[in-house]
Amino acid sequence: MWKNLASVLEGDIVRLEPLARRHEERLFEAAQHESVWRWMHYDAGGSRERFHAWLEDALAASSAGTEAAFATVDAATGEPVGSTRYLALRPEHRGLEIGWTWLAPARWQTGANVEAKLLMLEHAFERLGCLRVEFKTDSRNERSRAALAALPAKFEGIFRKHMLVRGGERRDSAYYSIIDDEWPEVRENLRRRIDAIRKEETR
C-alpha cells in the first residue's frame, strides 16, 4: 500500500485533513442542505444517525487502508466545510479514484473545490506516483460533469446501470480520468483558476 496516503494537504483556501471524529459535529452542520446529497448514492443529510453511519463507514475504510477520507477545512478559520476521499485504490497499477466529494453550498464557487482537487491531484501524481486518477458521477449530474470537464478531465463514457442507489434506483455513471501525461496541463489550469478567484476577491 501507499505510504502517507491521507496526509494533511495544505492550501491557501482549504486544508485537507484526515477525517476524524472531531470533525463530525461541524461537518454535520455543513451537510444539511439537500443539494449536498442529491447525487450521492447514500443520503447522510438530515439525520444524525445516518450522518454518523456515513462518518463511521469512512473512518473504517480509511483504517482498513481501502480508502483515505479527508475533511475539507477552511484554511483561514479551521472550520470543516466538506469532505472528499481517495478510493478504488490500485497501488499495483498506480491508479486511484477521487470521489465522495461534497461541500456546504455556501462554499460553492469560492475556489474551495478547485483547490481541493489541485491538492489531491498534486499528491496523487507527484508524491504517490499515480499514472491515472479517475472520477465518476451520476450521468444526470450536470454540475459535477461540468466541473470535471473544467479540470480538464477526459470523459471516458457511461457505465450503464452501474449502481443501485437510494433503495434500488438504477444509476448510470459517467467516468472521467486524468493521466500523468496530462497532469502538467491540468495543474497549470487549476493554478490559473485559483489565481483568478483570488484577484476577483481583492477587487
Describe the overall structure.
With 203 residues, the protein is α+β, with helices and mostly antiparallel strands. 33% of the residues lie in helices and 32% in strands. The chain is built from five helices and eight strands. An eight-stranded mixed β-sheet has the order 1-2-3-4-5-6-8-7, with helices on both faces. Strand 4 (80-90) and strand 5 (95-103) form a beta hairpin. Helix 3 runs antiparallel to helix 5 (183-201). The longest helix is centred in the last third of the chain and has 19 residues, at 183-201. The radius of gyration is 16 Å and the shape is globular. The model has no long low-confidence stretch (mean pLDDT 94).
Summarize the structure.
The protein has 203 residues and is α+β, with helices and mostly antiparallel strands. The chain has five helices and eight strands; from the N terminus they run E-E-H-H-E-E-E-H-E-H-E-E-H.
Structural key phrases:
single chain, 203 residues, alpha+beta, 5 helices
Averaging pLDDT over every residue, what do you get?
Answer: 94
What is the H/E order? EEHHEEEHEHEEH
The helix content, as a percent range, equals: 25-40%
- Indicate the radius of gyration in whole angstroms: 16 Å
Strand order of the largest sheet: 1-2-3-4-5-6-8-7
Number of strands: 8
- Main sheet overview: 8 strands, mixed
* First-to-last CA distance: 46 Å
β-strand percent reads 25-35%
- Individual helix count: 5
- Overall geometric form: globular
> Helix/strand-derived class?
alpha+beta
Low-confidence stretches: none
